[in-house]
Amino acid sequence: MIIFVAGLFHLRRAPNLFQYLLIAGCLLLLTVQALINLGVVTGCLPTKGMSLPFISYGGSNLILMAILIGLIANTHISWMSPALNTRDRAMTDIDE
User: Which of 43, 74, 81, 92 is the most buried (most CB within 10 A)?
Assistant: First the structure.
């Protein structure tokens, strides 16, 4: 729940649509798995065999969840840092 709410606040600062959709997909992948597992444990949903993020045994799920959290953390860091000005990035002519 904390990851989802923090991710929603993080999405409000997305600089473009691609990055917004990338992080929204990461958040949905994390939270839908957790919600389905919660529903199975409480008896509201039938069993599906879906793993609980970061808890269930299995290397591939753990690697995928780590990659998703890494994407979210990387975008959080990059969205906080200011972008370079275009005049600072312009190539200069070399006089020979």
Answer: 74
H-type alpha helices, the chain: 2-11, 17-42, 59-80, 86-89
Residue 12: closest CA among 24, 29, 26: 24
What is the spatial distance between Cα 77 and Cα 82, in angstroms, rounded to a whole number?
A: 10
What's the rounded Cα separation, in Å, for the pair 2 and 4? 5
pTM: 0.69
pLDDT tens per residue, range 1-60: 888 888 888 888 888 888 889 889 999 988 888 888 888 888 888 887 777 777 777 788
The label of the residue with tokens 């995928």 reads: 64
Task: Give the list of residues 6+ apart from residue 73 with CB closer than 8 angstroms, or none.
Answer: none
Domain spans in the chain, listed from the N-terminal domain onward: 16-77
